[in-house]
Design brief:
The complex is a heterodimer.
Chain A: E1 4-7, E2 10-13, E3 18-25, E4 31-37, E5 44-50, E6 53-57, E7 64-70, E8 73-79, E9 87-94, E10 106-107, E11 111-115
Parallel strand pairs in A: 2-11
Antiparallel strand pairs in A: 1-3, 3-8, 4-5, 4-9, 5-6, 7-8, 9-10, 9-11
Chain B: E1 4-7, E2 10-14, E3 19-25, E4 32-38, E5 44-51, E6 56-59, E7 62-67, E8 72-77, E9 86-93, E10 100-102, E11 106-111
Parallel strand pairs in B: 2-11
Antiparallel strand pairs in B: 1-3, 3-8, 4-5, 4-9, 6-7, 7-8, 9-10, 9-11
Classes of the chains: A mainly beta, B mainly beta.
Chain lengths: 116, 112
C-alpha cells in the first residue's frame, strides 16, 4: 500500500470556525509533512513531523496547529482562518531516513480549503 | 540559498511529439532531484528520482537526466499523449533533512 489518504477532499469554513484536516498512511513511514499550495504555485512546506515529533515549523501562523497522534496519522487543526488561507493542503510522508539520497515523498490528493 | 528554475512555464505540443522539460538549480550540493506530475486540483505523483551519484533514470516513456556540474536536469517525454497533459515540477533535496526546494513548474498541454 503506497497510498496517503486525506480527508475531507473539500472544506468550506467561515473565519470563526474550527475544523481539522486528516492524513493517514500505512507504509510505515516515520516522517510526515503538511504543505500549502496556492494556485499555479509550487507547494510550500508548513510542518514536518519526524518520529511523531515536530521537527520543522516554517513560521506558520498559530491559527494552524498540527498534531501527530501516532506514526500513521497527521492532523492539521484550523481556527480563525483568513480568506487568504484558502488553498490546497497537501499531506506527504517519507520513510524518515533523512540521509538517504533515494528517499522520496509520497503525497496525498489534498484537501481543497475555502475560507469565507 | 538554493534556487530552482523551470523553463518554459508552459508548453503546448501536438500529440506524438518528443519533448524536453528543463530544470536548473543554483547549488550543485544536492542529495537528489525529483520530477513530479500534478493534475489540476490534485496531489503530486513522483515520476522519477535521480540520486546525486546518478546521471539518469528511466521509466517507460520518461527519461530524466542530471548534470550536477552545470546545475541542470531534463525530463524527456517520448511520443507524447494527451494523457501526459499536466503540470510537471522538479524538486531538489538539499543538505537540510527534509526540505525539498521546488521549481515553479511547467504546464504541459498535449493537443490531440
Amino acid at each position: 500500500d503506497t497510498e496517503v489518504t486525506q480527508t475531507p477532499k473539500h472544506l468550506v469554513m467561515g473565519m470563526t470556525n474550527k475544523k481539522s484536516l486528516k492524513c493517514e498512511q500505512h507504509m510505515g513511514h516515520r516522517a510526515m509533512y503538511w504543505y500549502k499550495q496556492k494556485a499555479k504555485k509550487p507547494p510550500e512546506l508548513m510542518f514536518v513531523y519526524s518520529y511523531e515529533k515536530l521537527s520543522i515549523n516554517e513560521s506558520v501562523p498559530s491559527r494552524f496547529s498540527p498534531e501527530c497522534p501516532n506514526s500513521s496519522l497527521l492532523n492539521l487543526h484550523l481556527h480563525a482562518l483568513q480568506p487568504e488561507d484558502s488553498a490546497l493542503y497537501l499531506c506527504a510522508s517519507s520513510q524518515g531516513a533523512s540521509g538517504d539520497p533515494g528517499e522520496t515523498q509520497y503525497f496525498g490528493p489534498g484537501t481543497r480549503l475555502l475560507v469565507l | 540559498k538554493q534556487e530552482v528554475t523551470q523553463i518554459p512555464a508552459a508548453l503546448s505540443v501536438p500529440e506524438g511529439e518528443n519533448l524536453v522539460l528543463n530544470c536548473s538549480f543554483t547549488d550543485s550540493a544536492i542529495y537528489n532531484l525529483q520530477w513530479f506530475r500534478q493534475d489540476p486540483g490534485k496531489g503530486l505523483t513522483s515520476l522519477l528520482l535521480i540520486q546525486s551519484s546518478q546521471r539518469e533514470q528511466t521509466s517507460g516513456r520518461l527519461n530524466a537526466s542530471l548534470d550536477k556540474s552545470s546545475g541542470r536536469s531534463t525530463l524527456y517525454i517520448a511520443a507524447s499523449q494527451p494523457g501526459d497533459s499536466a503540470t510537471y515540477l522538479c524538486a531538489v533535496k538539499g543538505w537540510s533533512n527534509y526540505q525539498l526546494i521546488w521549481g515553479a513548474g511547467t504546464k504541459l498541454i498535449i493537443k490531440p
